[in-house]
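Consortium newsletter contribution from the modelling node. Members have asked for a concrete example of what our holo predictions look like. Here is one, prepared for the magnesium ion complex that several groups have been discussing at recent meetings.
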Amino acid sequence: MNKELLKINDLKVSFFTPAGEVKAVNGISYSLEPGKVLGIVGESGSGKSVSSYSIMGLIDKPGKIVGGSIVFDGKDVSTMTKAERLNFAGNEVAMIFQDPMTCLNPVFTIGNQIAESLIHKYGKISKEELKKRSIELLTLVGINEPEKRLAQYPHEFSGGMRQRVMIAMALAGSPKLLIADEPTTALDVTIQAQILELLKDIQKKTGMAIILITHDLGIVADMADDIIVMYGGKIVEQGSVYSIFNSPRHPYTKGLLRSLPDLNKKGEKLIPIQGNPIDLLNLPKGCSFAPRCGNCMKVCINHMPEEYSTEDGHRVSCWLYDSRANNNAEVKNNG
Amino acid sequence: MANNESKTSPSGYNSARKQDVLIEVKNLKQYFNIKSSLGKKATVKAVDDVTFNIYKGETLGLVGESGSGKTTLGRSILRIYEPTAGRVIFSGVDITKLKKGKLLHYRKKMQYIFQDPYASLDPRMTVSDIVGEALDIHKLATSKKDRAEKIRELLKLVGLNTEHASRYPHEFSGGQRQRIGIARAIAVEPEFIVCDEPVSALDVSIRAQIINTLEEMQERLNLTYLFISHDLGVVRHTCDRVGVMYLGHIVELVESEELYKNPLHPYTQALLTAIPEPDPEVAKKRNRIILKGEIPSPVNPPSGCKFRTRCPFAKDICKKEIPEFKEHGSGHYVACHFAGKL
Ligand SMILES: Nc1ncnc2c1ncn2[C@@H]1O[C@H](COP(=O)(O)OP(=O)(O)OP(=O)(O)O)[C@@H](O)[C@H]1O
Ligand SMILES: Nc1ncnc2c1ncn2[C@@H]1O[C@H](COP(=O)(O)OP(=O)(O)O)[C@@H](O)[C@H]1O
Ligand code: SF4
Ligand code: SF4
Ligand SMILES: [Mg+2]
Ligand SMILES: [Mg+2]
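And here is the predicted structure:
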């Protein structure tokens, strides 16, 4: 039996740039069950996109997977042949991006591009069948007058409509997993609401799993079953959506939630996270959050924290949760 | 941004503020002539006949979808654009009529903070040059020493290290760059600042820092803000009153608490339910109003009420008559034929 759809173990991805090795993903492990929605949050540059591109095999030079394994539906992605991988990306896993134009070709009609995705999945199919399926897909993603729309070019579509087209193309291969990288960040809130509602609806209909990457905690609260919080190329905390929001453990997760504006505390000052985002070229020796952490102890500066499990199923990488720790440990920054 | 005690009592708050109007915007229009996709001449009515007041010391929020006219309105008020029609009255003086020399005096009182701190900072200038230039234009430093001292103070005030003065913008993170933008704006001792999406380009973990800095500046320097944002969560926290824009019109304007509790315009109602709620218990249960379609082209807006093509309550009259922007209850302005009756 195969309960896990995706299992990532100690994945490491680096970019070898003139300025040095950028450890974009620095040893992450997680697994995802079929039909679940996993939200990945974290600040810009924390490795959310790179870790997900790795699943699709989309890491190009100067980037390289330098360690760990990715197993999808029982198959090790890194040992796939070229042909296997071609079939895998698109048909087993599909991806949508923040900017749909990165995937849409401006010189081909929408119909052409959807047809291409369908052919990728089904091989040779008749013209009538192609048209019928394309119209079904556009209807499924809520595009009116689909027949007319098939003959149009991407520039004739608004941002929200392009995102719908991209979702249609992703769905063409009936993937088991959809990776959505900031799918609504470039859209207005009313359009964002439309797209998120669409994703929920499709998820219900098809039962596919979704990895939803976003920096918006509101979006994961609404959509996700489980949440991963990334910081500096590592997973600092993971757990179910309810327990992450109700009892966050890692100081970074706590800080993020505390810094959100809240109507009930109007007139009170916001409580920000101190300091500046991390520089991956100059990673601290110990915990990467240490320079900004209000709970930082001596051990944190020089030693990477281990991962601890809590009774409610969180996994958290922070020295505070070491049962051997004594409470008199020296606090460096004031919190 | 309201840490002010009197603001908790609605009546006292209102009357105290009503006496102190800083800016009156009257029937302001900002049209742009463009060539349409077919090469024909067309007019974009980016801001179309808006009238409202900005009170001294308040933070007035401006929300609405992309293209609704928020930035244009902010720029027309500062006369970065020459308004097509209407008036902007600053402390009793109609600045839409002022000649260049006189205008400079008012430019100093009214500043602008941009969404993209990087694009708005000259990459060849040091932080000290950038802040110093603002001082020079308005002759605010009495000597070289005074200038250097003022720059140091400004940097400290916005939370930058004084050693940073000799560095260039690219050496800073997004949040720090926005601090440089704030330092430049407050250098000239303004009374009014248009903050155009000041935190939208910043990482979530940095936004709260910058909002706090803006609030501190407001308290210390008695500033009045026009705070443009599409993030209704941020607006809810920072603003005393909020105006909602749609296709060049302000469709609703009211104290922010009232807006979130009792929105009267159908567009506002939809906008509020579209905000992602960072609480899974609430988020997963609530019913959202999902608006159909997208904001129409401002070149060819719908007749009557411009929102009618997406409004779930539109009736015949909405096609024929433009709803008047009028008061429904104290200080609650709405432009909808059925305001309060829905
Ligand atoms: N200089 C210009 N020339 C022509 N049209 C313009 C100009 N500036 C703005 N517009 C148009 O005016 C309308 C309002 O634009 P504006 O930038 O004020 O919107 P906004 O509400 O600030 O949007 P956003 O949320 O995207 O910043 C848009 O349709 C825009 O394309
Ligand atoms: N093509 C590339 N070349 C060099 N560095 C890269 C490249 N792509 C990503 N990186 C670096 O990897 C890190 C993680 O990036 P990414 O996964 O895109 O972050 P996120 O999606 O969380 O914002 C960043 O420091 C980024 O600059
Ligand atoms: S390990 Fe130490 S520095 Fe890192 S988050 Fe935990 S307490 Fe803070
Ligand atoms: S005037 Fe009519 S169309 Fe416009 S918001 Fe009110 S009900 Fe809707
Ligand atoms: Mg990314
Ligand atoms: Mg704008």
